[in-house]
Amino acid sequence: MKTIECKDIHFSYKAGFLRHYRVLKGLSFDVDQRGIYGFLGINGSGKTTTIKLLNNFIKKDSGTLTIFGFDAQDIKARAYIGYMPENPSFYVYLNAKEFLTFISRLKGVHKPEIKERIDILIKLVGLERHADMPISKYSRGMSQRLGLAQALIGDPELLILDEPMANLDPIGRRVFREIFFKLKERGKTLFFSTHIIPDVEMICDKVGILMDGRIAKEGSIDELLSSHIEYIECVIKGKEAGLFAERHKAHTLSVTMQTDTAIIRFTDKKFVDTILKDIVGSTVKLSSLEEHTQSLEDIFVHEAGRA
Amino acid sequence: MKKASIIALNTLKEAIRNRIVYAVMILMLLGLLASQLLTPLTMGEQIKVIQDFSMTFINFFSIIVTVFVGTSVVRRELDLKTIQLILSRPIHRYQFIIGKFLGMVLLDIIIIFIMGMGVMLNIFLINKSVYYSMWYFHEIHYIAILEAIAFMALQLILINAVSVFFSAITSSAVIGALFTFFLYVVGMFTQNLNDLLKMVHKSYITWIIKIIYYAVPNFSTLDLKNEAIYGIIPNINQALFLFSYVVLYTGFLLIVAILIFENKEIR
Ligand SMILES: Nc1ncnc2c1ncn2[C@@H]1O[C@H](COP(=O)(O)OP(=O)(O)OP(=O)(O)O)[C@@H](O)[C@H]1O
Ligand SMILES: [Mg+2]
Known about the structure:
Largest interface: A-B, 27 and 24 residues
Radius of gyration of chain A: 25 Å
Oligomer: heterodimer
Number of strands of chain B: 0
Structural class of chain B: mainly alpha
Bound molecules: adenosine-5'-triphosphate, magnesium ion
Shape of chain B: globular
Largest sheet of chain A: 6 strands, mixed
Distance between the termini of chain B: 26 Å
C-alpha cells in the first residue's frame, strides 16, 4: 500500500460567486512507504494547497486522495499524520510544554507517558532552554522547531511538513536533517514541500516537481539527474591517445588534447560501449569516465521556465 | 466528548489568562464595592437602588466580556491559523465547535458565580449597614435574586451560541462581535416589538415584525432583575420553559454553525 495516493486532483479557490482560481489541474503522484519525498515547486505553484487537501482543510473539486488507503477526508487518515504548517503560529498564552501537552491529549497519547515524551521531543528539537518561556516570545526559528516537535507527537507514520527548513540557522538545519534521517531509519514516511534545492539533494529519496497544477517531473534524485546528462567525459592516456580520439571523431562532442592525454566528450550513452571495447584492443589506457549532469537546480529552473 | 472537553479546557485557559477578562472582572468587583460608598438615599429606597444597580452592573459587564471573548475565541483560531494544529489531529470539526462553546460556558459559569457572590455580599452588607444606622432590616428576596443571576448565566450561554454562529459565517472578529451585540440589543427589545405590533395595521409590516419577534433570541424574557427585587420568581413551569427555550435556541445555532463550519475552507 502507498502512503499517499493522489489521482487526478482538481482544485480551485472560489473568489466570490463566479470567479474561480484554478490551482491544481489533474495532480497525480504516489508516495511510497518509508522514505522522504520532496515536493518541489515555485512560489504559488500549489504546494501548500496540496498539503491542505491532505489535511482535509479544503475540499477537492474532483479526483481521489488517499492516505494509508483511507480517504483524506476520513478522520481515520488523521491518526497517521503529523503535520507542520508553513510559518506555524501557536497559542500565545501557553508555553511550549503546555502546548505540547494539549496536542498530546488531542492526539490521544497515553496520559502517564505525556510528560516524559514531551521532554524527549523538546530536547530533540533543541528547545530545552526555552521550554517554559511563553511562545509569544519565540523567534521564527524557535517556532519552526516547536512546529516540528508538535508534528512528531504521537509518533505518526506520515509526516507532512510544509517548508520545514525555512527560517532555520545552519545548526537548526542540521538538527532537522538528522531528525529526518532518524525518522526514515525508523520506517516513517516524510512528505515535505520546499524550494531549497540543496536540502532536497541531501535529504530526499524521491522528488516531484509541481508545475502548472500538475507533477511535471518525478523520480529519485539519481533518475532525475541522469535524464539530464549534459555530456559524458572520457579521459584517455597513452602515446596513441591522439590517434584514438581521431578515430572516434564522428561521435564526439569535442576533443581536447594534452601531451599523451585526450579528453573526449560525447552525449550518446550507447557510445560508451564502443569506446570501451576499442580501448581494450589498443595501447591507450582509460583514466576516467564520468557523466556530467545538470544540477537539480538547473532542472528545476528549466522546468519552471516551461510553465 | 473527550476531545471536545480537551478543547473546552484549553479555551477556558485562554480566557482566564486574558488580561482584558481579568481587568473587566476586577472592574466589576470594584464597581460593586463603590456602590457601598454611595451616600444613603431615602430610607428603604437605597436598598432597592443598590440591588438594581448591582445586578444591572454585572449583567452589562458580563455581557460585554462574553461578546468580546466569545467572538474572538473561534475567530482567533482561524485568523492565527492555530486551528490547523487542531484539525490536523483525529478530531471532528463539530467536536472543535462544541469544545469551544463548552469552554465559553465554563467561563460564563465562573464569571456569574464570582459576580453573583459579589452581588449577594454587596446587598447583604448594605442591608446590614442600613440596619445599624436605622434599626431597620429591609426585606431582601435572596432566592429570587439568585435566580435572576442564574438566568443571567443563561443569557450569556445564549450569547455564546450567537457568537459561535457569527464566527462561523463572518470573516472578522469585530464584525462578529458587532452582530452579536446588535442581536442582543434587539433581543432585549422584543417585548417592545409586541407592543409595536398592536399599533401597526399594514399586514406586511406585521409579518416582518412577527418574523423578527420569533427569530431573534428573546433575551428580555431571561431578564428577571426587576421581578427579583420584589421577590417575584417564575414558577417551575415558567422556569422550565425558559430553560428549554435557551437549550433549543442554543442547539439550533450550534447545529447551523457546525453545518457551515463543516464546509469551511481552513486557510
Ligand atoms: N485562500 C486562498 N484564496 C484564493 N487563492 C489562494 C488562496 N490560497 C492560495 N491561493 C492561491 O493559490 C495559489 C497556490 O498557493 P499555495 O499557497 O498553494 O502555493 P505554494 O506552492 O505553497 O507557494 P509558496 O512556495 O509561496 O508557499 C497561489 O497563486 C495563491 O495565490
Ligand atoms: Mg506554501
